[in-house]
Design a protein that fits this description.
This protein is of the alpha+beta class. The chain is built from 13 helices and 38 strands. The structure holds (2R,3S,4R,5S)-2-(hydroxymethyl)piperidine-3,4,5-triol (DGJ).
């Protein structure tokens, strides 16, 4: 890994054994993008930006050369209204509202390691030699504004991370209206765009389309990342598939409103940007103040989408997720939500816990309904005291009783919300996000607390800490069940354009406090399922509830999409009842198990109603999973067959680091009469090794990967599955 500035070519070259990223300085003033992709050894000549006198392509003031224009220059961080007519990377104004967007190249520094991003989640290194950072300073001398473009390259990952720090060294306040975390201009547009749109119950669908002229936007204006889009996009070559071909991935480490733009310009260059959504954003930067944007991870793979995903999995597992649970095997849990919804008593919970313990379940999670006077979703959010009608002996007694059965105890919270029917709201009706004087929209009959205000956060924090200090709690499910509207704050010092970002900073501050005060607690993030499944939350909470849709067939699509960017150890996945509560579908217990076992296995049903044979089957699932969960949760994961291709089947494989053991899952979504034969090639194995399959076959890694195996012709019926374990043997 190295970062070199070459005076002759006026280029910065960041490289490691996998990738190179090259930036050129043009006309001593402009930063142009030169290269991002597979490693090149050395940059031999200066930028070869095609200089041409093009009509309607303006030339900057001081340059007499009509061949140079910002309208065509591939750039690193473009300004607004200065002759580049593509989407801009930043906009700021002075107090009179005049745009002042002349940030020009000024200087650089290169150092070992990586700085922390104060108050924001970010990738980190433990040792300085794990990464190097380039910081390029751009300056607007007439306003005293500087932007520091930060680029980090890691020793062991095909990845570059980027972010920007603005600094106002002038004497007047400036107003930042747009501050993208990164922008890059790729030299051509022969790509497909892959994005992950969704909705509640069908998160992160895989959508691949040809890139065409114009601006393609994916965003959130909902206060958080939301179900609607993932702050991730990939550009892949036309022939790229799961196994080979070039793939560029971009992911924003942030949990708030975001914007992703892909613009193909008139000369078939492609600009990609990610950052905070400017829609509701306006940040006053006083004299001497700084503003730090969130970080973007950019990865490059020539091994197709699986290669791209592995680079995100490895980076997030090793350099984003933190704390005691980072590499700890995740417990098999039971969550009572779909088993009881709000309708439970202490006795019911203890009965469920009793049977769960017999089945081998390790953690009991008490979901929504244990606090205030919560019998439905109309009341009590904000009042984090035990609901004695349901739990007359209190939480501590319940937790102790569950611990006595040999299980851990987990609890659900939705700390960011308030119900109008709550003591908190009655005492502080102005503590919610709202625009004073404008009617408030409700979502799930609740309002969002104004976490941009410290006193609001402190109130909730102290209520939570009162419980955590009294009750032995091993796990917290942190839920968030609506989006923000009427973005505003009753606190006069918080400007409307700052509320959304200050909210997220406040949330991060509170999470940092909780995860450092209670390092043993395993946190699982949730937002009506996977509505806030983003790398920002992963920095604080190592796992996420992937979706409220627990139907096995739907989960194939959801988990397939989720695995594109998120490691398996982060994916909560539960076996639930049939007919399924979200789609009314029946699927075999085996298939439900195999889908849930492809993530952090849990159960979400009333176990007291299981028949004896079902209990036996669940026991077996759990004990099997325990013996392979390390490999599943922390091994290498590869997708093989996509549920999106023809809705007929899905397959994936988990392989351990040494390629000694692998677990292959095949799911038959829709069966066919008189099925055509199909070979399935495995991947990720060692071609030199020989493997024994647990159905008795012995095959070489090369045979399994290059020839494949027949899909089981005898697997009959819809929603069925097969699992094959492979162990390497002496050949
Ligand atoms: C939404 C979550 O995604 C569910 O799992 C459950 O916790 C409910 N909220 C409870 O209200």
């Amino acid at each position: 890994m190295n970062i070199v500035y070459d005076q002759n070519t006026q280029t910065f070259h960041l490289s490691n054994k996998f990738v190179s990223y090259v930036i050129a300085v043009e006309e001593d003033k402009y930063l142009s993008h030169y290269y991002w992709g597979k490693k090149i050894k050395k940059v031999h000549s200066p930028s070869d930006y095609p200089r041409k006198d093009r009509a309607f392509a303006p030339n900057p003031d001081h340059i007499q050369d009509r061949h140079f224009s910002l309208a065509t220059l591939p750039q690193e961080y473009s300004g607004t209204d200065i002759g580049d007519f593509r989407v801009s990377s930043y906009t700021y104004t002075d107090i009179t509202g005049l745009r002042a967007n002349h940030l020009n190249y000024h200087g650089y520094s290169i150092f070992n390691g990586k700085k922390t991003l104060q108050g924001l989640p970010h990738t980190y290194v433990k040792l300085e030699q794990e990464a190097m950072t380039l910081e390029i300073q751009l300056i607007d001398s007439s306003h005293g504004m500087s932007a520091f473009l930060q680029y980090t390259i890691f020793e062991d990952h095909p990845v570059v991370t980027r972010s920007v720090r603005f600094q106002n060294n002038g004497e007047e306040a400036l107003s930042i209206k747009r501050a993208m975390s990164m922008s890059i201009d790729l030299p051509d547009s022969d790509y497909d765009l892959i994005q992950f749109p969704g909705a509640w119950g069908r998160e992160r669908e895989v959508l691949r389309s040809s890139l065409v002229r114009g601006i393609h936007t994916l965003d959130s204006k909902r206060g958080t990342t939301s179900h609607t889009y993932q702050p991730f996009l990939a550009l892949v070559r036309k022939d790229t598939d799961e196994f080979s071909g070039e793939a560029y991935g971009f992911h924003l480490i942030y949990s708030g409103e975001f914007l992703g733009n892909v613009e193909v310009d008139s000369f078939s260059q492609t600009r990609v940007q990610l950052g905070i959504n400017p829609e509701h954003f306006e940040w006053k930067l006083g004299a001497g103040e700084t503003f730090q944007t969130p970080e973007v991870v950019m990865s490059y793979s020539e091994e197709g989408l699986n290669g791209m995903s592995r680079s995100f999995h490895e980076l997030y597992q090793n350099k984003l997720i933190r704390g005691k649970h980072q590499y700890r095997e995740r417990p098999v849990l039971i969550n009572n939500w779909e088993g009881t919804y709000f309708n439970f008593t202490e006795e019911k919970i203890l009965n469920m816990a009793e049977i769960s313990a017999e089945l081998g379940i390790e953690l009991f999670v008490l979901d929504d309904g244990w606090f205030g006077k919560r019998d439905d979703d109309y009341s009590s959010l904000g009042d984090w005291t035990v609901y004695k009608n349901k739990l007359p002996n209190g939480l501590k007694a319940l937790s102790d009783a569950i611990h006595k059965k040999g299980m851990k105890f987990g609890l659900w919270f939705e700390p960011e919300m308030v119900s109008e029917d709550s003591d908190l709201y009655r005492s502080h009706p102005d503590w919610c996000i709202h625009t004073p004087g404008i009617p408030k929209s409700r979502g799930r009959s609740q309002l969002v607390l104004d976490f941009s205000r410290k006193e609001v956060r402190d109130n909730i924090l102290s209520q939570m800490k009162a419980i955590l200090d009294e009750v032995p709690i091993d796990y917290i499910k942190w839920d968030y069940n609506r989006n923000m509207t009427e973005l505003g704050s009753a606190a006069p010092e918080i400007m409307p354009g700052e509320v959304a970002h200050r909210y997220i900073l406040g949330l991060y501050e509170m999470l940092e406090d909780l995860v450092t005060t209670y390092p043993d607690i395993l946190f699982e993030s949730c937002s009506g399922g996977g509505g806030r499944y983003d790398p920002g939350m992963l920095y604080y909470m190592p796992q996420t509830w992937t979706s409220d849709n627990t139907d096995a067939a739907s989960r194939l699509e959801i988990q397939y999409g989720t695995s594109m960017m998120f490691p398996i150890s982060s994916m909560g996945s539960h076996v639930s009842d049939v007919p399924n509560h979200q789609v009314n579908r029946y699927s075999s217990l085996e298939m439900r198990g195999h889908v849930a076992m492809s993530g952090n296995l849990g159960y979400e049903l009333d176990v007291t109603k299981l028949t004896e044979p079902e209990k036996e089957a669940v026991k077996e699932q759990i004990s099997w999973y325990k013996s392979y969960r390390k490999l599943i949760q922390f091994g290498n994961f590869y997708r093989i067959l996509s549920p999106y291709d023809n809705k007929q089947h899905t397959a994936w494989i988990f392989v351990d680091q040494n390629k000694e053991t692998a677990i292959y899952f095949y799911y038959q979504i829709m069966d066919k009469a008189n099925k055509p034969s199909k070979m399935l090639k495995m991947t990720g194995l060692d071609s030199e090794k020989t493997y024994r399959l647990d159905d008795g076959r012995i095959l070489g890694g090369d045979e399994l990967m290059y020839r494949g195996i027949y899909l089981d012709p005898d697997l009959s019926g819809d929603y069925k599955s097969r699992c094959i374990v492979l162990h390497s043997i002496e050949s």
